[in-house]
Design brief:
By secondary structure, the protein is α/β, with parallel strands linked by helices. It contains ten helices and nine strands. The two termini are 18 Å apart.
Amino acid sequence: MSEKNGSEQWFEVKQNHNLGFKLMFFSLKVFPPAVVRVLAYIIGFFYWIFSAKIRGFSKKYLLKAGKSSTLKHICSFALNLVENVQTWAGNFSFSDIEKQDDDVSDLLENINSGKGSLVIISHLGNPQMMKGLACLCEGWTSRKISITTISDENIYSGFNVLLKELNPDSSFNHVDSDNIGPETIIFLQERIEAGDVVVIAGDRVSAHSQRNIEIPFFGEKAKFPYGVFLLAALLNAPTYFMNGLRKKDFCINPKYSLFIKKNPLDFDCGRKEREERIKQTAENYARNLEELCKLHPYQWYNFFDFWA
């Protein structure tokens, strides 16, 4: 990650961890996951020592969340990288995941009935869990899920190529968030009609759009991407907020909790009302994210000045 002076947004921070991901993938082929997690703690410790700027960003967030250990935060991130690779490679058992008494049954019912959905994820916990569910199913769904992901191709192209290398059987399409136009919206609507799950992150503003929504987050206004919640309005499909979290922040053989929250709003309304519902959807998302961050502060991995 870059170490230049001044506040940085997430897209100004170097995102290329492909070599580390590949090393973890091959390590998981050779060693049990518990051993690789021990190695992750060691890697996290050295990263903590040499990344003063990241420690600063971590500290600013943790103080708002009532915590203080930047070392724990960065080591938690190192564990999350292992989980991402496990998920991508199909080396992640959903028997280790505990469903909550929330809207997960509604989402699974939609999937089983062939209906499409929009899932808005975040960088809290394991954001790749939906892709893992698509690869594994494991009795959760009666059909294989097709995933369409939306992210910045310039920043995440390496991740998407690596995912295909790790698991050629993974069933997902990718849409570049920097080139979304009328044709893309039509394509996404077609994928929804075909029963796809469209997945996009809602806690990072666009690198190419200045239009954002300011929402109180941990007592201070923060910017959330308008385009993500506009997309929810344009697709007008059942929309869910999803997070997969370790039940214990630090554990060699972790168990997980899956949280699914359905957005109660639809967009069968006039244009003026639609704008208000877009803002309300963003507020619902931010409120849900803050509540879960308070449960597991060390599992939110936005290492930049989120309130800049």
